[in-house]
Amino acid sequence: MSKEQVSAFKPEAIEGFEPGQLFGLAPAAFEGFSKDQVSAFNPEAIERFEPDQLVSLKPAVFKGFSSNQIAAVKPEVFSSFTNQILKKVKPSAMSGLLAEGKCN
Question: Does the CA dihedral 101-22-86-67 come out positive or negative?
Fold first, then answer.
């Protein structure tokens, strides 16, 4: 799937995706997601995202993540987050960083 195809999905459609449909996407496809679309990501899919997938998202898109979604990000993936990305995460979602094992 291309970033153009991904950008055409409504958030409601993304809510219906199985985790494998999301974590199986190529990193280039992640460039097409909006903040409204990422807010519909299933945390089970986020648990399996690789660093190259998440850093392919536009930094502004990280405003769409909830604390539950941030908590689902693998600890080793956080090392790939730039300051630009972290500045875009909503303060209310930052509590997800306090999830067990995230700050070790």
Answer: negative
